[in-house]
Specification:
- The complex is a heterodimer.
- By secondary structure, chain A is mostly helical.
- Helix content of chain A is 55%, strand content 0%.
- In chain A, α1 runs antiparallel to α10 and α2 runs antiparallel to α3.
- Chain B has a domain of 105 residues.
- Chain B contains six helices and no strands.
- Chain B is globular.
- Chain B starts with 18 loop residues before the first helix and ends with a helix.
- Classes of the chains: A mainly alpha, B mainly alpha.
- Chains A and B meet through α12, α13, α14 and α15 of A and α1, α2, α5 and α6 of B.
- Chain A: It comes from Hibiscus sabdariffa (roselle).
- Chain A: This is BHLH domain-containing protein.
- Chain A: InterPro entries: bHLH_dom, bHLH_ZIP_TF, HLH_DNA-bd_sf.
- Chain A: It is found in: Nucleus.
Chain lengths: 411, 174
């Protein structure tokens, strides 16, 4: 079979065939092309090279060959694409071509070009699709590939298209050299492609398993549209979550998102704990505050700025009781050591004795330290406590500071 | 209260109806209420712990109120805060476990055919479930809406963290 196909290629084709192949190859690289334009081109091709290929096809031996040869001819386009919904669509990869509308025909056309590039399929002819006999396709595919379900899935769209084309020989036979090339490649690399493509396209082909005879168009369309939406949203989330640029794939992204949300929630807990602890020691005079301006002030306060006043300033003071309570809170909250956030650092740092007036000042490098280290490498906070009093808090790594630098003034 | 002004302060550019200002206003109001209720004297660890819980609840509630009911997660948070009794953590845990079981049934019911199951079987499901647990109200949403809610939730959480950090810094300066 391989030999026959190769011989077909080497047949005395028209000189235009090379041009045809080149044009088709060029077309494959277009991702945003107008579907109609593609269709028109294909129709031209078909029309031009029709007569000569007809003979070739007629001379083929065996229905198996016919099926394979017919494969691309289905992809002549002049009809609308609506029925050709079984083409596999890779969710994640497809989403890379962001400008694509969610119009299934274009999407399917472009997608199947990119995914099944070995076959160089382009557009479909709907009318061809309508007369499909699935049984033969199934037989053919399984016999030719012989590698089971996955390869069947891989070839199903092609087979489907094939099969329809089989009944409509008059329609563009112009694609036959494409078909032959396609089929040679497929038969040559069948096992390799199967194993590779099936793994890669495992997710994509899931919806293709629906039988073609059923009215699965709306389902498949909806499924494809859904996948595209999901991939678009994953991209938006990628922008929101810092440090996700290198990560590809849904699972990794979701992991990052989950970690980020968890760290944000923990930060909220710690900040509330800190405010609670601070509240108890600091008089918060409501009357002195201009309540209208204060929210504005608070809201405009750049989160990661170092307060210049902090440099010489202290520490806030907790008495030992409060220190215990903070420790309790530390234990209460969820604190895996490896995901220490700023909050943990600040809470651990901000413990000192209350009565420091007489003794030497303990220098806490609290907020400035943990505030100002967004791009630094993982830093350890050391806290120097007053000698007479306090429990030394051990180091905590703040590597999340690197990863999760908060935005300033996001509104 | 604060003698030192921060380096940048743009009162004119502040949008009074932005999420940040809405949240800041509400949260500060809640804080003053909390401070008014309890004596501010240094107290036992349990009292501080209680105060911490109250402040956390106030933070979540004010953020949810700032978002109103436009988002599923805010509605879920508000509902959770309203119906949850302050002392029954066991009840919360029980509810969470029941919600988890309900989640799986809901998700199974909403799956349209084989595709979803296989997708979930491909490993996407584990992270999805975790995300659903994290985002309030995420149990009964499909993946598409869940990602939307997550994006908005992340945005609101970052705002919350910023404002609270600022408040804490301001406190510490006194």
């Amino acid at each position: 079979m391989l030999h026959r196909l190769e011989s077909l290629e080497s047949c005395n084709y028209n000189g235009m065939d090379v041009a045809v192949l080149e044009r088709q190859a060029a077309r494959l690289k277009w991702q945003q092309q107008n579907y109609v334009v593609q269709n028109n081109n294909l129709v031209e091709l078909c029309a031009s090279s029709m007569p000569q290929f007809q003979g070739l096809i007629g001379s083929n031996i065996g229905s198996g060959q016919m099926v394979q040869l017919k494969r691309p001819e289905v992809f002549l386009g002049s009809g609308d694409f609506q029925e050709f919904v079984n083409f596999p669509v890779a969710g994640a990869e497809f989403g890379d071509s962001e400008k694509l509308d969610l119009v299934p025909p274009e999407a399917a056309a472009d997608y199947c070009i990119s995914r099944t590039s070995s076959c160089q399929m382009t557009a479909l002819n709907t009318s061809v699709m309508k007369e499909e006999r699935e049984d033969m396709v199934l037989e053919k595919m399984e016999s030719t590939t012989g590698s089971g379900r996955e390869s069947f899935n891989k070839r199903k769209p092609e087979a489907v298209a094939d099969h329809k084309g089989k009944n409509k020989r008059i329609k563009g036979e112009g694609e036959s050299e494409v078909k032959t090339k396609c089929s040679t490649e497929i038969s040559r690399n069948s096992s390799k492609e199967n194993s590779k493509a099936s793994e890669v396209q495992k997710l994509d082909y899931i919806h293709v398993r629906a039988r073609r005879g059923q009215a699965t168009d709306s389902h498949s369309l909806a499924e494809r549209a859904r996948r595209e939406k999901i991939s678009m949203k994953m991209k938006c989330l990628q922008d929101l979550v810092p440090g996700c640029n290198k990560i590809t794939g849904k699972a990794g992204m979701l992991d990052e998102i989950i970690n980020y949300v968890q760290s944000l929630q923990r930060q909220v807990e710690f900040l509330s704990m800190k405010i609670a602890a601070l509240n108890s020691s600091v008089q918060f005079n409501v009357e002195n505050l201009p309540m209208k301006e204060f929210p504005a002030y608070v809201a405009n306060f750049p989160a990661a700025a170092k307060l210049p006043a902090m440099a010489g300033l202290p520490y806030f003071q907790l008495n030992p009781l409060q220190k215990e309570s903070v420790n309790c809170m530390l234990n209460e909250s969820i604190l895996p050591a490896q995901t220490a956030t700023e909050g943990i650092a600040s809470a651990s740092v901000s413990i000192s004795e209350q009565s420091l007036s007489s003794s030497s000042m303990t220098q806490l490098q609290p907020f400035s330290t943990w505030n100002m280290d967004p791009q630094g490498s993982s830093s350890n906070l050391t806290v120097i406590f007053h000698s007479s009093s306090i429990v030394r808090v051990e180091y905590i790594r703040i590597w999340h500071l690197i990863r999760y630098t908060p935005d300033t003034d996001t509104s | 209260m604060n003698t030192s002004k921060p380096p940048t302060m743009d009162l004119q550019n502040l949008n009074p109806s932005s999420l940040k200002s809405r949240f800041a206003t509400r949260f500060l109001r809640a804080l003053t209420k909390i401070n008014a209720q309890k004596p501010i004297s240094p107290s036992s660890p349990t009292e501080i712990f209680q105060r911490y819980r109250r402040i956390k609840v106030a933070a979540d509630k004010s953020m949810a109120y700032s978002v109103r009911s436009r988002r599923t997660w805010s509605r879920a948070t508000l509902w959770r805060l309203r119906t949850r009794s302050p002392r029954s953590r066991l009840a919360t845990l029980a509810r969470r476990s029941s919600v988890k079981t309900r989640t799986t049934t809901v998700v199974d019911k909403t799956s349209h055919g084989k595709e979803n199951k296989e997708e979930r079987g491909a490993g996407l499901g584990v992270e999805e479930e975790e995300l659903r647990e994290l985002v309030p109200g995420g149990e009964a949403m499909d993946l598409c809406n869940l990602l939307d809610e997550t994006a908005h939730y992340i945005k609101c959480l970052t705002t919350q963290v910023q404002v609270m950090r600022t408040i804490a810094n301001l406190y510490s300066l006194d």
